[in-house]
Amino acid sequence: MTKIQMTTPLVEMDGDEMTRIIWQMIKDELLLPYIDLKTEYYDLGLPERERTKDQVTVDSAEATKKYGVAVKCATITPNAQRVEEYRLSQMWKSPNGTIRAILDGTVFRAPIMVRGISPVVKTWKHPITIARHAYGDVYRCTEYRVPGPGRAELVFTGADGKEEFRQTVYDFECSGVLQGQYNKDSSIASFARSCFQYAIDTKQDLWFATKDTISKQYDHTFKDIFQAIFDAEYKAAFDALGIEYFYTLIDDAVARVIRSQGGFIWACKNYDGDVMSDMVSSAFGSLAMMTSVLVSPAGVYEYEAAHGTVQRHYYKHLEGKETSTNSVATIFAWSGALRKRGELDELPDLVAFADRLEAATLATIEAGEMTGDLARITTLPNPVTLSTGEFISAIAKRLAA
Description:
The chain contains 14 helices and 18 strands. By secondary structure, the protein is of the alpha/beta class. A hairpin with a 5-residue loop joins strand 9 (150-157) and strand 10 (163-172).
């Protein structure tokens, strides 16, 4: 069989623990038999990040800017326990955070829907994509534990050294807590453009929600920037496609989402997106059935699974015990990246293969062959629980048929 030829490489970012094991299985059984796979490989496993002082993460992001499409395995963001376990010189930053910052991208997460795995919300018929502005806000805030009575003030000093703004936040009569957070117009504008372009690419309505009635400067700035960019740059394209940009308050959005049928993109600020993406993934069935793609305004794409490295299964694997780890989101990361590479390079065979790979994966589940996490929640009768390797092999058989 003649393998599908690629003209431009994908940036391949390997990862950690059980997902690293699955990563190689997917390549060996589902990709390499069919594709003359061209990748620029970066090992983002924690030992290599330690060895390179995390330079490998920066290099992989720069390569993604060069080639336009990347596929990433799940990676460890170390905590104190991981520092000790891997004997790290320091607590390295999240690779996803580093890559997002370099690409100036927005994360879009959407559930993979399949017959037999029913959403908890009965009205949901189509996927709901969460677009999270993964910059600033509470994730880069400055905090202070107030020890006792005193005055907290918000002060801004211009670049010329002149104090331009001072306002009392609160006159504390006792101990308390204080937090200051920020965002940037440039980052909000990149977020808006990524959302509008992704809505156009996927031909879906875009919702955006903040709490501008309460936060009349901070959240209102998000609202105003979104509206100005939409009116000036994207309204005509939205009208031509018959899709809608819709703004509402975050609490109204939550109520509307629960009553909706799905099939739209829901853009959220950082914290809202963090929380709502987990809510949506759980309500649709499983975090292991959630795609994730980082999209930059410059048209750069990085695909990955939405979940982590499945540490518990990895320790079982090291003990020689059988695992039943769901590989669907990782498979769809590869298929998403291959499809985008095929679209950009005008390789219809590569696009068609990505479609076939996804169809074979879903057909396996719909035939009642699935990993343990899905077997516990499926509505299909008499599901067969497969091990990690057996599930990938079952997909391979359908792909070869």
